[in-house]
Specification:
The complex is a heterodimer of chains A (116) and B (117). Chain A is an all-beta fold. Chain A contains no helices and eleven strands. Chain B is an all-beta fold and 117 residues long. Helix content of chain B is 0%, strand content 52%. Chain B is built from no helices and twelve strands. In chain B, the strands form three sheets. In chain B, strands 2, 5, 6, 10, 11 and 12 form a six-stranded mixed sheet that branches. Chain B has a four-stranded antiparallel sheet with strand order 3-9-8-7, with no helix packed on it. In chain B, strand 5 and strand 6 form a beta hairpin. The termini of chain B are far apart. The chains are: A mainly beta (116), B mainly beta (117). The interface between A and B is medium-sized, with 31 and 31 residues.
Chain lengths: 116, 117
């Protein structure tokens, strides 16, 4: 059983460019989460999907951020017009969630973004 | 509001010492879950344990043990006879269960554990 995978693992971009990250969850996991982690801090929730529906977005997710999970499998996170403050590790997690939440989330290796 | 506090930013021990990582949480919910994750230098968060708010029984798994005390809102993690491979950042996290919504995790700031040979 393969774990959560993320692509790319590292991304360097110039300020103002758009970037897109991909996350492939564990097969048959119905929930997919995105988090952002800056240096020396714990991960912060960005958004999550139940199957293909995006059910919650954090206030951290500005208008420049968009996420999709078109067929309820892989997900993409796009950042438009990147800013230096977007430099962080972007983590994806998936879970098999019964009703009620509180399920265990399994994390991918992350995508480390550096905006110059 | 929900919050997780890990007051110890860094801990350094010598191999074979026991070490306890503290975690204090805040929540208004009566039903919630607590987690510990390990983040080695490679960066990937590794799940260690999940505990629900109705189960205060302590748990032991090999050299790891967890002490959950609702009275003090704490969920502490002890490593017995630490090893160099235990060196990592450890995160405590909280998940609230409300209205059958998603279980987003609220993380503490993490404790960086360094085990020296």
């Amino acid at each position: 059983d393969t774990g959560v995978s993320q692509d790319p693992r590292h991304k360097i971009t110039k300020r103002g460019q758009n970037v897109t990250f991909r996350c492939d969850p564990i097969s048959e996991h119905n929930r997919l989460y995105w988090y952002r982690q800056t240096l020396g801090q714990g991960p912060e929730f960005l958004t999550y999907f139940q199957n293909e529906a995006q059910l919650e977005k954090s206030r951290l997710l500005s208008d420049r951020f968009s996420a999709e999970r078109p067929k309820g499998s892989f997900s993409t996170l796009e950042i438009q017009r990147t800013e230096q403050g977007d430099s962080a590790m972007y983590l994806c997690a998936s879970s098999l969630a019964p009703a009620g939440g509180g399920e265990t989330q399994y994390f991918g290796p992350g995508t480390r973004l550096l905006v110059l | 509001a929900q919050k997780v506090t890990q007051a110890q930013t860094e801990i350094s021990v010598v191999e074979k010492e026991d070490v306890t990582l503290d975690c204090v949480y805040e929540t208004r919910d009566t039903t919630y879950y607590l987690f510990w994750y390990k983040q080695p230098p490679s960066g990937e968060l590794v799940f260690l344990i999940r505990r629900n708010s109705f189960d205060e029984q302590n748990e032991i798994s090999g050299r790891y043990s967890w002490n959950f005390q609702k009275s003090t809102s704490s969920f502490n993690f002890t490593i017995t006879a630490s090893q160099v491979v235990d060196s990592a950042v450890y995160f405590c996290a909280l998940s609230e269960v409300q209205n059958n919504q998603g279980g987003k995790l609220i993380f503490g700031q993490g404790t960086e554990l360094s085990v020296k040979p």
